[in-house]
Amino acid sequence: MLNFKEPQIEDRQTANSILYPLNYRLCEYCFGDLFIWRRVYNTQFAFEQNYMYVRFKNQDKTFYLFPAGIGDLEKATRLIYEQAKDDGTEFKLACVTPEMRTKLEEVFPGKFDYEPVRDSYDYIYNASDLITLAGRKLHSKRNHIARFERLGNWSYDVITHENINECEKMSIEWCKINGCGNDLSLNLEYCAVKQAFEHYFELGMSGGMITLDGRVVAFSIGQKINNDTFVVHIEKAFSDVEGAYTVINREFAAHNCENFSYINREDDAGEEGLRKAKLSYHPSILLEKNFATLKDGVSL
């Protein structure tokens, strides 16, 4: 059986050597994303024969990611199936994209049912759109930035060893203002943000912050998924500072994503306000994700 364990920083090189060549653009196939959320979702890894296996165990539910690797997909999928049987849990694949669905159907035709999970769809943008904010459809974003620029002296600074603590302090203040202590989802998110700061340099993250009249009012953190896609893991700004979110979005893209074709800004978790905000930037790809489960009476 597969030897699952909690992800460790030491797994990064092995994971990336498997994940990068796949050229998947979804955030769940980024080591940094899996690592910072590992304790929230009880994420576990297993490596075997050039494949990386990922599962999430929450309460009475267990989900697996589509096997990450290049090779015998039929064998890799059966390994997960046998693991689930041995554990006495349902065999269920999460975050299955249309590309993965096609691969599954080639190996196991007609054996799976697919259930779209809209709250998990990734918002993927043309990097040039977020950098330039050109065109009529993004005119309102340029107006937000213009209003922000009238508020005072501001700058964009790269996150370094010397200033990362300033972003951490801002994150704590943001949580106090937004009531993280009374909101489970925000509290869990704060745990992931804390992990990102704690292991920022080990994970190969890159980030930046916006300072307005000497005060940090926004920051953003991310990293590359593959050679053409950069993922934004975390973005925080004070909502009472008009235009702060728009400015950090543009500046971070301009400073960190100019050599990438796409920017993945992850999902909206079903939050209406976040969904509206992400749609307002007009994603190039709204990446579909599905649960894949075996049809009744079917086995592998």
The overall strand count is: 14
- Name the shape in a single word: globular
CA-CA gap between termini? 16 Å
- Helix/strand/pairing category: alpha+beta
Strand content: 25-35%
Number of domains as seen in the coordinates = 2
- How would you sum up the major sheet? 7 strands, mixed
Mean pLDDT value = 96
The total count of helices amounts to: 11
Q: What top-tier CATH class of the largest domain fits best?
A: Alpha Beta
Low-confidence stretches are: none
CATH topology of the largest domain: Aminopeptidase
Helix percent reads 25-40%
Name the helix and strand elements from N-terminus to C-terminus, one letter apiece. HHHEEEEHEHEEHHEHHEEEHEHEE
Say which CATH homologous superfamily of the largest domain is assigned: Gcn5-related N-acetyltransferase (GNAT)
Could you say what the CATH architecture of the largest domain is?
3-Layer(aba) Sandwich
**Radius of gyration of CA atoms, rounded to a whole number:** 20 Å
Question: Care to describe what's here?
Answer:
This protein has 300 residues and is of the alpha+beta class. The chain contains eleven helices and 14 strands. It folds into two domains: 120 residues, 3-Layer(aba) Sandwich (Aminopeptidase); 145 residues, Gcn5-related N-acetyltransferase (GNAT) (Aminopeptidase), CATH 3.40.630.30. Strands 1, 2, 3, 4, 5, 6 and 14 form a seven-stranded mixed β-sheet that branches. A seven-stranded mixed β-sheet has the order 8-9-10-11-12-7-13, with helices on both faces. The longest helix is centred in the first third of the chain and has 15 residues. It is globular, with a radius of gyration of 20 Å. It is 37% helix and 26% strand.
